[in-house]
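Known limitations

Structure tokens in this collection are predictions and should be treated as such. Users comparing against experimental data should check residue numbering before alignment. To illustrate the layout, the record for NAD kinase is reproduced below. The input appears on top and the generated tokens appear beneath it.
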Amino acid sequence: MKIAIVANPGKQGAQAYFPEIASRLASLGAELLLEDKDREKFPYAGACYLQREELYRECDLVLALGGDGTILHTVTYAAPLGKPVLGINAGTLGFMAGLETNELYKLPRLFTGEYTLDRRMLLNVRIEGEDAVYYALNDAVISKGTVSRILDLTVTLNSREIASYRADGVILSTPTGSTAYSLSAGGPVLDPEMDGMLVTPICPHSLFDRSILFKDDSVVSITASTRYGEGAYLTVDGRLGRALKPKDTVTIRKAAISAKLIRLKEGTFYETLTQKLMHRRG
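Generated tokens:
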């Protein structure tokens, strides 16, 4: 089995646990693949170092070692190729991780098939008039730019205008992303096995604006501008970002592909929710 390891060099936990993880996998007969740029940060004798595109093309599965951001980054490249991802939490929260660092003894289950494969909905995000397509496992956020001015946002559902907000921005999230930025903005928690799009305004200038959940075959379009003619900013999964012009329309729909997340640890989503969020302090 060819296993690609994508480790976050900015996480001390990733650097600390990488040697043990690599050694365990190699002893189980895995062929280890790493990105060429990580050769110095994550050296391992016998590993094959490849360019990113070749790494994802050649592997059977990807192991993402870091926090939720590392998993999101990895899914971006793995999902279009249908490659499953195992997230090992070496960060703070690791809500999407399928394994904790104190559970590495469960790694042999990758080779015996004793694991759960969770399929998660992705968003297809496009700016009208452009060819580029962005995939989001968590969310797409349209927010104000560097100038702190409130946005005028228009939300269209299946070509019909259904809402307008004056707010700092709006979050369009998947059920998986409902526990991320949307939750911080007052949105509800959704079961990640659901399909649907959650629209949550950010700091709306109203007492009555709340989140709206749309079914999974909906096509949601949003335009945003300020009264001073300025545009907004689009961010996808907290990493891909670009400025929007005042008349730009961002269209979001369910993607034709899905993310495959491997889960080796036991427990339900609701048990993880309680452990990771409800009992968290600080």
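For this record: Residues 154 and 164 are 4 Å apart (CA to CA). Helices lie at 12-27, 52-58, 68-78, 109-112, 181-184, 269-278. Please report discrepancies through the issue tracker.
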